[in-house]
Structures are given as C-alpha cells and as structure tokens.
Amino acid sequence: MAQTLNSLRIGRLQGKNAVVTGAAGGIGLETCILFAKEGANVLMADISGPGLERASAKLKQVIPSHNKVEVKTCDVSKESDIQALVEHVDSWGGVDVMFNNAGIMHADDADAVDTPEKIWDLTQAINVKGVWFGSKHAVLSMRRHKKAKGSIINTASVVALVGSATPQLAYTASKGAVLAMTRELAIVHAREGFRFNALCPSPLNTPLLQDWLGDDQPKRHRREVHFPSGRFGEAIEQAQAVLFLASDESGYINGQDFVVDGGMTKAYVTPEGDPLPAPTNNALLSTPVDTLHTV
User: Fold this and answer.
1) Does the model's pTM come out above 0.85?
2) Is 117 exposed, middle or buried (0-12, 13-18, 19+ CB in 10 A)?
3) Domain boundary assignment for the chain
C-alpha cells in the first residue's frame, strides 16, 4: 500500500482544522488541495454550491488519503454566513487556520470618475467586510476552543503596494484596506498567539483574472511585460506560500505583506526572451498527488 503524509501522520498541518473561503477555484482550491495533502481537516467555502461540489470532487480525486473534507456555501459579505461557517468546525475542535480568500474583481470597476457606486459598495462588502467577518469569527473560535496559536491569512494583492494606470479603483482600495486591517489585527492578537498575514499575489493565471482579460492581447501584454519571468503566476505558487503561512514553520512571521509576485514589484526593465515554464496546478491533474515516492 502506498504511503502518504496522511497515512504516516507527518504532514505540516497534521491535525489542524482549516477554513478556506473562495475555495471553488484558483488560489482557494489549490490551497485546499495542499492543506488536505499536508494533514489538515478542510472546510471549503464558496458562494457557488455547484462550484464547491466540483472543487471537492477534484480535491478527493487528487488527494485520496485526505482527512476530513467538507463544503459549505457562504456569502462572505453576510456576517451570519461567516459565523455559521466558522461554527461548523466547532465539532472538529475549532479553527486553527483561517484563509480569508474570497474576493471579486468586477468588470465595471474603473477609475474615480467611472466606477459606479454600486460596484464600489459590492467590492468593499466582499473584499473588506468579508475579511473582517472571517477574522472576527476565527478569533472567537480560537478563544472558544482555548487555542494557544492560530494562523489567519488574508488575500490582498500587489495592487495595494504599487499603482496602475489601468485602474480598478474599488478593487485596489479594498486590497489596501486588507493590508491595513491585517497589520492591526496582527498586533492586537499577538500575545494570544494568533498570527495574521496578508498574501499579496501578482496577477495570476486564475479564472478571475483571465475572464477579465479575455481575448484582449494588448491588454494582456501590457501586464505580462512587467514580469521578470515573462509569465503570469500560477495559483499553486500562491498556495505554497499560504501553506507555509498556515504552518508552524512560519511561527515568527506576523503582520507581514507577504508578496509572492515573481519579482514584479522589484523590477524596472525586465529581461527579453522566452517566458519561463509554469508549474502545473494540481486542480488540472486527474491522478493522485499524495503518494510518497522513495528514492
């Protein structure tokens, strides 16, 4: 019988209970797959019920050794939904890891003149209030279950760090708010052992961004030229960073803007030549990835 991290009980998140929002695809799904591979019990949340079912089926296909994996639909802009989501894992022993990842990037988001107020309000409700509600109820769960440590990771963006002449002002403002909120929460809860860090991805090859770029090649090239590697990042590259922040290996990392951008925010003139090859996302595979191979 093939051995796995779960069969040996040696995963980096062995025995931890993790809640992931925005879990139906992209960074959220890739993170759930890695969490399950590394021994966590995972509650997958998303506003799309059908999307969650497909994501859960994919996780179980590629990580057949998984521990507990359950799904729950959730509108993160509603506190009652978040509260019910987090309280769902009370029977598991409470939250150890909370990944507040759900977010939107609306096609009608523009600059200060052209962004409709309803798009501004919708974006803040999901991207900012959703993180606030998730953080609040993660803390309450950790306190309720007398946790000595916990990790909350909030998805921000590099657009909160650098400006863009192709604005999505509501999105940018929301991600700046996530950075500020995460830093403050990190300091407030430091003596309780609850760490807060913000993941700052560069533009990624995710459905969210790719749907927005569509077939507009000039629009796409205007962004790709800023990557030293010559390509967009992949969701699995962000998920690896989230796994690290969720694990005890990052125990002295707190309050950080954790930038995973392939060097984009450090670049001026980028190299010429062919782009580097990208890793394959686990969600694109159809065979298990949890088997340990001996050398």
Assistant:
1) yes
2) exposed
3) 12-264
